[in-house]
Queue: 2 jobs
Job 1
Amino acid sequence: MELTLNEKRLLVALGSMGSADATALAEAMGTRPEAVVQYAHLASGRGLVEVHRDVRRRYTLTDEGKAYAGKGLPERQLLESFEERIPMKDLQRHPLARIGIGWMRKKDWIAIRDGVVHKTGGDLPGADERAFAVLGETGVVQDGEGVQDLVRRGLAEVEETVTYEISLTAAGRHLLAEGLDLRQETGTLTREQIISGEWKTLNLRRYSVEKVPRRIYAGKVHPYQRLLDEMRRVLLDMGFTEIHGGIVQSSFWNFDALFQPQDHPAREMQDTFFLAERWPLPEGYERVRDMHERGGETSSTGWGGTWSVERAEQSVLRTHTTCLSIRHLAEHPRPPVKAFCIGRVYRREAVDPTHLPEFEQLEGIVMDEGVNFRHLLGFLKEFYASMGFEKVRFRPGYFPYTEPSVEPEVWVDGLGWVELGGAGIFRQEVTAPFGIEYPVLAWGLGISRVAMLKLGLRDLRQLYRSDVGWVRETPVLAEPIRGEEGQCRS
Amino acid sequence: MPIITLPFAYLERLVGAERSVILDRVPMIGADIERVEEDHADIEFFPDRPDLFSAEGVARAMRGFLGIETGLRAYSVRPSGIAFTVDPALAGIRPFLGSAVIRDVSLGEEAIESLMGLQEALHWAVGRGRAKVAIGVHDLDTVEPPFRYFAAPRDRSFVPLDFDREMTMEEILVEHPKGRDYAHLVERFARFPLIVDARDRVLSFPPVINGELTRVTTETQNILLDTTGTDAKAVMTAVNIICTALAETGAAIESVTIDGREVPTLAPAERIVSVAECSDLLGIRLSPGEMSELLWRMRFGAEPMGDDRVRVQVPCYRADILHDWDVFEDVAIAYGYENFEACLPSTFTIAREHPIAVIEGAVRSILVGLGYLEMMPFTLTSEPVLFDKMQRPRSSAALRVLHPISEEQTVVRTDILPLLLEMLQLNRHRELPQRLFAVGDVVAGTATYQKVAATSIHPGADFSEAYATTDALCRELSLPYTVAESEDPAFIDGRRGNILVGCRIVGVFGEIHPAVLNAFELEHPVAALELDLTVVPGYPAPPGTP
């Protein structure tokens, strides 16, 4: 049991008296009675003292009350001003009529018939009158019948005095008998106390571990950024080089270089943010044109039709990070290339809980001699396992720039199989114009989907228009993935 | 993507297998099951496989995939003797025509619905909303060949489908619901495409509406198909897909003569592919015989040619086979994606972080150390937020999107600070102090680069805090900087500074102007800074600079 110094001083003060009231103790301890009561409550919580609270009331007459003192209450004075009966209009001329008539009726002293006031004879003095009489003589009463009525009528007022009687319990006496350390307590240590060695003799105040601490908040990286960093870490661990690039791209890099036909629906104004700026085509763009029109030098037929330079020059806010992958490959056509990119991409979508016009995409590519479809599945498995998704399965998919294409699905408890991203091997129509001679394995995913799973979000807007409270309360070390029902992964 | 409704009874009859078997396997051919109801399933197929947009097409594929009937499905085509002529004046309007006659159809309600569903899906996926291809289906017995496809005057009139009175084509574009939907495809032309019969009766006003005369009903026995468009290949793809789907129900296909050419032939295209190339791509060793067998399951014709070749016959309805690798994907699907053993290549590579990511990471660690909380605001914003509320003049460097989707997102951010002030506004109800920062992409003109901004709001926030934070950030970034008084109107005069590297202003800090606080509905002082990260040592030089 750890007593505060003040509790100890209280016990010592009580020791000589056994029992005392707070005021007396305050005087003995040189403090205020309120402080003594506070110490006593602490000590009483430990069973060392008993606190007895006593409320005393003291009644005195108000100015109005004093005006009637010795003469009686107004209704009594009024009653005595006439004999058995009196016409009402005469009685109303009496100076106390306004107050007295009502009270006389209330106390059933009078009855009124045909404008005449009759005494009923039941006019013995009540408790209020008796109390008033005593008050009038002594000026003060402690309590008693009738005095409350006078308070309510504004004739008397009350003054409450609370006293605390504090007495030692057996346990208190016992503790006191064992002796108490009454040295002054020290809160914060000073520099002087530390270097002088004074700390050795100090009585250091003890703090309660049961009290809830003050809540402070760490500065921190955004929970979503932590997730992005986790993914970067995974890819860096797998030996990938990070790439970076501009938000504004030409349609050439965003679409044409990826063999997306010029009349593809994704290239229409309602899906993509087009910009007024035009972007000159890179040297050698004709090989991409030939691929679209006739399939170039490959076994492809191409899309046919006429490829428009003007459409390719239109700039857009990149709709995927794949434009950065193909630019990187065009600059590094020799194997091996292992690269990844995490960046914001743009789609012309209205903002709602599950759609945003901008969001992050992750993409990885591997180009090397001899890489094949099984390696693609291998990278996918490895990547998803590192992200905490142990169970992965693969289904055929369709993406305009890969062949074969794969839709990976991961198992999430409570949700089942969740489609997470897309993958494939870049078509030769994509790689050949840039002199890339070996297969390019590629996969990508919208990270917002993972963020919703990992951060337990139902509204994607929380990622970009974040509640500071949410960021403060989201732990730095993330919990395991949870499904809809909030079940932990085994 | 097109979602196809497949009635179970009809599908089971066509496939010859139980619905449970079909539903179990159909995802592995390349499809997503959207929902399964009592009597049908809604399934999404990929846009490159329009041949799967009908129950008949799905049944054909599933029969092969399940091993019920494999190999190339051959379709016989007899000449119908029916002829079309095409008006050369259509050259700049809608030049290409495809057609076929489909005889002895017995169109139950299911088959008619399937046909209509297929037509709609093809209009979307192949036809690009009827711009590239439009399809008309007619009761052949209501009209008389030969037929003529020509550029007609705009005031030519006929009774369009679903109406009971004659209208001119111009009226149709205004008054008929389909006319209004597709007016944008033709209204710019002086003459409109029209198909008429020997007696000059109208079959169709492509790509808008058919005539009421040739409406197809359950009584229809013989169908005349027309497809018109701007792409010769796509026009024939649509003919092939519809003809082969109806042939699956037992109908007989006949060709027509278009300007002397017989179409359709429904003949497969031939492709000779390398078995080694396929094996290398997929990572599995296949013999020509094994590869051929896998292709049969996908309804290709295939026969081994020597050690490394397979002669592949690509069905006429397969619009997606552009390249040999498209064939190889089908080999992989037949092999079964679940049967591939995943593995990793052995090439050794070393990871490299991008220098910009390294700098952003350093900025994060410095500001987090200073007690700041990271935010990740949008990059799309508006000029009122970016400039007006900041009391800054609007800049021509802000990149505008051409067709914004809302007033809040019309430009790409040139600065991050205004978006952070918006974040403070959003979080007014949260406990102070709030110290927030954001680091990331901004765009000036068309160039993307990176900035960091930080704000601190609390009753004691002032110039000194902003200056001290700026100094700490720059020191930690090894950025030698100087400061000078700033004139940025977003800050209070006398409480603002520019960050200079050499003679170039690369950032600003200070105490936010009370008028700006009012504009963002903030009630306490804000100390703020923003810094261009391109001057930080280690930032990569833009391409093209020495």
Note: The longest strand of chain B covers residues 434-444.
Job 2
Amino acid sequence: MSEETKQVMVTVTIDGQEKLVPQGSNLIEAARQANITIPHYCYHKHLSIAGNCRMCQVKIEGQPKLTIACNTTVTEGMKVSTHHTSAEVAEAQRATLEFLLINHPLDCTVCDQAGQCKLQDYFYQYDIQPSRFTEHKEHKMKATPLGPEVIYDAERCIVCTRCVRFCKEVTKSAELGVFQRGDRSYIGVVQGAELNNPLSGTVADLCPVGALTHRRWRFNTRIWNTTITSTVCAGCSNGCNCEVAVRDNQVVQVKGKLTSQGNKGWMCDEGRYGFMRFEPERRLAKPMRWNGSTYELVKSEQIVTAIKTALFALKANSKAALFLSPYLTKEELAAALDYAQKAFQLAATSEQISLSPRPRAVSELEAILIASDYAPNIQAACALNMVEQSSDWRTGLNERYLRLLKEVKDGKYAAVCIIGDYAINADQIDAALVVAVRGAEFSLQLGVREDEVLGSEELAKGTPAIAKFVLPALTVNERSGIFINRLGREQKIKQLLTAPDEAKSEADWLKSLAE
Amino acid sequence: MAHHKILTENVHYADQHEIGRYEERGGYQAIRRILNSDPLSIMEEVKTSGLRGRGGAGFPTGMKWSFVPRNTGKPIYLLCNADESEPGTFKDRLLLERDSHLLLEGMMIAAYALGSHWTAIYIRGEYAHPAACLAKAINEAYQRGYLGQGIFGSDYGLDIVLHRGAGAYICGEETGLIESLEGYRGQPRLKPPFPAVVGLYDCPTVVNNVETLAALPWIIKNGAAAYAQIGTEKSKGTKLMSVSGHVKNPGVYEIDLGYPLLDFINNECGGVREGHSLKAVIAGGSSVPVLRADELAGVLLDYESLKTAGTMLGSGGMIVLDDSTDMVEVVANLQHFYSHESCGQCTPCREGGHWVEKVVKRIYEGQGFPTDLMLLDSVCSQIAGHTICPFGDALVTPVLSFIKKFRNEFDEKIMAALDRHLV
């Protein structure tokens, strides 16, 4: 479609409101623009039209029967009545709800979807009366695992086929299908397959009812007891928009957020279930100082003075190396570069400042939603002039990081600053590096880990404490600020978890150190 | 009255299904005659004949063909719907088994008129013997060069593929049939787009009933005008009626459209059984409204007259019920069928259909409540017209029409149940 044809607008009248909408718009989307919600289950903006739930029926002038809005493209002069103005539509909607609920187990009291369930919501909005169904309900399979991350309850299912269409159209792995027919219909995994694609958890998000639930979050919490925050996943530079539910300083549920661009509501399992992977097992809560044999706790004011003194004692023209974490926000990166300038007279473009893109390999299926690096804010390196944007700037950054790491080991730098968790990957830390860092005239670290053990499995995740001065900073879940994703879109990340008392953002620490 | 024998002229010959005998009796003459003519003129001829779809809806065949766009660059497919599954309907079976080549010739004519080079017959899975007959006939036709590349020595190529369904009623719905033929679950598609534009493999597609296609050779041989002279003004030609139920001579009959319904039952079918009287007639297959015996006077067997009487000619599957019939049982039986055959795709039919079945069954078993009839009326009215395909309407029709026409029998069952509840 050329730009010109996109611009053609048509006038539609929805419940008496005239609205100009782009030609070719879907009626549900057109109504949304007029602030009228047409209720629906099976329709999803980014999936094909199934038209099977019959919830979105509307009356269109000139058509003898009710029409489903999801399969209707608006045309010039179309006059539409929704449930607000047409008793016939309201009655059809009430009947659809009644039909959907007759075989539903109505087990809201133990259902994870309660509070975010379209059956509940629409029932309260459009029906709210006792059922006339007095027959025996159909009984079906309960709690069937479809794959490692998703559990299926056939009794709650309304066979809207969103999950089936997702696996067919988006991941193209087609593990799911509808089995049986009539009111025995259920969703199942095709023979020999398992719902284990890299985006499999998304089907539970798509489920408008409680039929598909996240295996690891089942029976965890009632959703109304959580705080839900719209933020951006820090798993990779794709920057998927999501809504995170937090309870007791723990992430208890993550849902993809329906965005017009970007991730369209999809989330990869790695990002969705991985929010807590940024949290260290032993959280650094107070500043520490290496006394030659062990770390001792120091008060905040004292350590700031001590660091300033140590920096002051550094000979002029001492060479410094700075390792910045790829999980810092744009603001924090700017503060770190500012510190590099003030303390070591290093420009942003300096080859002595590293920011590792943490490259990774992604399979074809993963590439739907996962970028080929772990660094959520790598594009900020360009925005802050650390590197010139070229075809291989990421490779260049990574090479600079590895070279700097080797030079530190070789003792070429008098001062070493490690700013933020993951500034140096744990698997690249060995005894030689620790000796080199602690042996440098000046070494400062802003991190979140109290651990000083090397080489253990669980530590392969972040940067353990290795410098002389270690200040408690923030994990990525505790930050707010701007991330720039791989397409250059600036997105706001919001604080999800509360940091311990003396932990402060890297920007705050560096500001007080530079005073 | 002597009816025209257009479809059943030769079915009484035991060897009619053999290609040699079929040709001796005038077969494969019509297709030979038209192979060099303009396909559009054939379509005009069919339009003039007034032939209407015999599957149930009665849509004019020539007009259906004219909806097919011919310049899309995509192939055009002709599909023969032999998924005859409507309870009470078994008219196509006669043609499939006894005069298979008549259908093949009809398909050749239709395919030529449409410019289709690949056609398929979708036959219901339960029709094992008719499928075997067809398979043999298709083989014979290929061997003689009547199918394949350059049929009858012309430069027009045509293939006919026989596909057996897996036994689902809904695959008789044309888009359900197309889905099934493509290898997917037999579930009707959303319309629009209609199959004439986006059908099999997203190509323009025409789906015609067996009986419709089988009428084409006669129309070509004898001319559209001759066909149009038979029947009434709007319902032209002959119709196969498959009669079952309480008549002396059940079976398949070919009648001129416009023949009086009572005459048909009393003369052709021999009337109801001795000692019984006529109670009701379902004129065109189980999903059309029932007519009481006292409503039958003056009703003619054609599309318009039956519509005036409040029912439909449908597929011509006539079920005759005499005074020994328990009407509640009839509905319970039909609802069992319909709820079993619901494809389960859309909500009202999937959930509502089974609800209706359960309520009707409960009434039949003597557990009904006085509110049940109101409930049925309300539920049925919310299924009809709210589904993807016409199955929703088909499943509520028997319930609504039987309750309307035989309300007293339902009331009696419910009152008897009420008495029991009180004791």
Note: The interface with chain B takes residues 49-55, 57, 65-66, 68, 71, 91-92, 95-96, 98-100, 102-103, 132-133, 135-136, 138, 158-159, 178, 180-185 of chain A (CB under 8 Å).
